[in-house]
Design a protein that fits this description.
mainly alpha; globular; 2 strands; two-stranded antiparallel ribbon; Arc Repressor Mutant, subunit A
Amino acid sequence: MKLSTKGRYGLRAMVDLAMNSSGEHVALSHVAEREGLSVQYLEQVFSTLRKAGLVKSVKGAGGGYTLSKEPSLITAGSILRAMEGDLSIVGKSKDDGTSPTVVEQCIRESLWDRIDESIVSIIDEVTIQQLADDTKKKNAEKALMFYI
């Protein structure tokens, strides 16, 4: 499975909001600047996030985006599903009227389904609050490094 830039940027932008909104609306231009992303592309990303109910928007002066709920209640999985759709590494069985072979069925159950379950377990466990906290910690560690 390979995530698209839309999924990766959506996750980055949501973590950025969690770190920088403090309950106030954040302009996309500020997120774009901090994350090194295109404002135009972020507009598409945030349109999808808004439709999924993950962010709220306000137009006009002082407007921007804010999280729709606490960052501890938003999982990486909810963001990635909104951006990517189905996250299975192998598509579901084809509906062409044929039954899967025993080998296909065995591989799906023994490998593909188990990989999917592991991925879902991880992405549904990690919240953007955790990612924001980890980012703040890494930034603090980086600031304390001295080079001689």
